[in-house]
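Annex B. Sample input.
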Amino acid sequence: MPIYEYVCDACKARYESIVMSVKQKVSCPHCASERRTLQLSVFSAGKSSNGSSPASGPSASGGGCGCTPHSCGCH
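Annex B, continued. Sample output.
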């Protein structure tokens, strides 16, 4: 069950949705529009068996380019 992140094309709200099937209708929880843009997500790795975080440094926050879950600094 993938969780997708979207931006509503109508009201610009950001939201997530669990998508069970490609035929599932996904609409904005704020304005009910089905017009949306799929966002690329940065996902996090958990802690390793020795208790340390496997990701550290610039890549831990989504890459060395300044990207965050809410914006991209690559431009």
